[in-house]
């Protein structure tokens, strides 16, 4: 199955479109619902085809090639998910500054969804809370447009920055992915338990799902379940794998 869709015509000239030259692939990591004991989604995580880490790949992205990189990641994630016969949701990270106009920049994504027969209703687009954006209003318009297409949206690393609650109000995401620093050693830190408990209650009030990511120990899982978290992602569940859908641990 080819994962090369042309993205020519996706930009009207108002964005810079220098090619991103490094060959990339995707690793997949599951997000699970431990209450239901089922896979909720897989997140697509970029890697270099030559084995480079995500950090090494992202270090090569700049203002000139970010549009090309962002588009390639979307298409590749969908193509590989379809090839692996993924039957759950697929979560894709996006770069808001690469989206000059949401409805134009989504064309290649929609084309990939159709070509590879991956339902667009199973797509989740997530952005890091601390992502530097040229305009908060522009980011809100992206989330609004994506919702109109039937995509789910997620705010990643929630709690890392100082504008989390403001983002929550303005962006209206479907999911909050808590920053792993809130999760780490939560079983021994009452302050973290109080903060995460407040986030879970807020999520319930707003109808927003809360994901604990970066979970590494059984003790963290037990504490988070007790607090009311149901969605989990991290090494204790499953490590990311390139070119495969890792089987997660679903019972603790």
Q: How many distinct helices? A: 9
Radius of gyration: 18 Å
Please give the alpha-carbon distance between the first and last residues. Answer: 37 Å
Helix content: 25-40%
Largest sheet: 8 strands, mixed, barrel
Q: Report mean pLDDT, rounded to a whole number.
A: 88
> What is the C-level CATH assignment?
Alpha Beta
- Protein structure class: alpha/beta
Order of helices and strands: EEHHEHHEHEHEHHEHEE
Mass-distribution shape: globular
Largest sheet: spatial strand order? 1-2-3-4-5-6-7-8
CATH architectural arrangement: Alpha-Beta Barrel
What is the CATH H-level superfamily?
EAL domain
The beta-strand count equals 9
InterPro entries: Cyclic-di-GMP_PDE-like (IPR050706), EAL_dom (IPR001633), EAL_sf (IPR035919)
Pfam families: EAL
Domain EAL: 4-252
GO molecular function, one term: cyclic-guanylate-specific phosphodiesterase activity
Description:
This protein is α/β, with parallel strands linked by helices and 252 residues long. The protein has one domain: TIM Barrel (Alpha-Beta Barrel). Helices cover 35% and strands 21% of the residues. The protein contains 9 helices and 9 strands. Strands 1-2-3-4-5-6-7-8 form an 8-stranded mixed beta barrel, surrounded by 4 helices. α2 packs parallel to α4. The longest helix is centred in the N-terminal third of the chain and has 18 residues. The protein starts with 23 loop residues before the first strand and ends in a 10-residue tail after the last strand.
